Amino acid sequence: MLQAANTVIAHHGIGTSLQQIADASGILVGSLYHHFKSKDALHAALNQRYRADLDRIGGAAKAKLARSDAAPVDEQIIELCREMARCAVKHQAALQMSFFEGRSKNIGPAEETDRNGSAVEAAMLQLLREGRKTEYIRADLDLATVADRICQSVLHVGLDVIRHDAPTDDVADVLSQIHLEGVAGHDTTHEDLDRSRAFAVADGVVKSWVDENEAAGDNASRVRTAARTEFSRKGFEVTTIRDIASAAGLPPGTVYRHLGSKDEMLKSIMLSFTQKIGDAWADIMRSDSSPTEKLDALCWLNINALKRFPDEFRIQLAWMRQSPPEIAEPMWSFDTRVREMSALLSEGIESGDLVVKTPREDILTRCAIGVLWIPPNIVRELGTRASLIHSRDTVLRGVAIRQP
Description:
The structure is a single chain. This protein is 71% helix and 0% strand. By secondary structure, it is mainly alpha-helical. Helix 6 (92-101) runs antiparallel to helix 19, helix 11 packs across helix 21 and helix 15 (241-248) packs across helix 16 (252-259). The longest helix is centred in the first third of the chain and has 28 residues, at 39-66. The chain starts with a helix and ends in an 8-residue tail after the last helix. The model is unreliable at 101-116 and 323-328 (pLDDT under 50).
């Protein structure tokens, strides 16, 4: 039953009914209730299996490191990334559910890391520390943050928007390479990146967001604000018009009159956000800057978007969790972003500004888009500027010591 539930939820989204799961299991829905008292109980069982699998992988990785015949650290890091990616794909339903909640549930219960992470994060941190001892990993990095970032990045292979039917190990290998070796073909300084035209464009957009506020006292604005908060807090699917009306302090009829159905409210809320990000993305891509500088500027844009629009970002994550994988998101225009990123990477690789050893440009493109979004918990913990430095130290420069 759990395996059937995992398959159906992964395909149809978190809104899958118990009737659909029972049908896929070949049993009556009443029989399903003999094993799980509710849909939440079934979800909890799926998450428990996912966390247990991750803990097993983390424990095995630490045991391998302790062996006298252990493989080189870089090979062990890549293998751990592959194991995590396979686990995420195997437990797609649990990953979809935990992705919305964030890091604390994304990688399981706390176990012996500096940041209260999981067993896989503890194993990754131990591997990075061993790599530092052997002068493979740079000495100027916060390895706990790096371990957190790598683990979250690799677990997202389980999201179809990142993997897109590519071989799981291949995607994990590309993500490992990006974090370990970076994509920049030459050394870059913070001063040079800060002075790029692309960064100036991104920074100008970010500064324009500072004083934006919705008009106070207007009923439509109150409804939109309440809907955004409720969609972010509870998720789009389970939020009702009554929930929004209660949060806005207005009758349900007034809410419907101002913004219509839930779908219309979502479109109204997200359209402004996606237009802001999409327009800024396009302006950065058109700037007279190198591909490396444009990647850096896009990351600065994303970091500040997470800070300025946390509700919209959580709603975006909720959409990824709720929607079947085959449904495209029209407001985000992800296909457009993929085409633009593919062209940018091709230009950079051809000119030598970017160096990435993979024949699969489609995998590289989606991985690059994924890693340019730093996990929200890291942005909260480090702040915007330190998060940018962290991104430069991973995505651009790589955490491994570059050989001359």
